[in-house]
Write a structure and sequence with these properties.
alpha/beta; Purple Acid Phosphatase, chain A, domain 2; six-stranded mixed beta sheet; 9 helices
Length: 239
Amino acid sequence: MKYAIISDVHANLEAVEACFREIERLRVDRVICLGDLVDYCAQPNEVISIIKNNCDVVLLGNHDEAQYNHLLSERFNERARVSSVHTRTVLEPENLEYIKKLKLTHSENELHFVHASPLEPQTYKYVLTDEAAMENYNAFTEKISFIGHSHRPLIFESSDTGINTITEGRLNINNRYIINVGSVGQPRDNNNKLSFGFFDSEEFAYYNTRIDYDRVSASIKIYKEGLPVFLAQRILVGK
């Protein structure tokens, strides 16, 4: 079975449209979204509509939860908090109700899916180091846990020799993995191309897919929406 795993789309309509054009070209069997549908970019309602209509499973991200758990946004940095408050003013009621029904985790076919981390998913911790990955392996039993949240693609492999960061490609069926698929809407790894994951369960192979999209149009919309200028600039450079 072929999977597309997307995360952190963040109201970026241009990126989401380009992402699904590529997903269609890849002819996947399942599309899983790991959350963070809203904030940072200018079109949360349009993006949610596409996600609802094209994903088989959609999970809850911290920016999604902040739309109804307002105390959560108080822990955001100032730009993220301003963006979250703005989203509340434009988000359509039916989309807020949709977000409220999203769950934190999903499992199928020896694959685990969560927005931030397998360990205490409701706290939205980052998994960016081998040490953090080690803490998380006991929190799931599946072969692979797919995550997002940090906006940075990473693959952690757990084997008899310990935990290592590896590159994409054919995986070892005897080992276990935590795979960050990166961000569709706001990459932060010094690469301004959108990022998502492609996993072939029969080949037991994973690839990080990077493609261009109309960043300039998306950036202009952020600026016109009155959101922090930094957010408009950030997607142009990918950090």
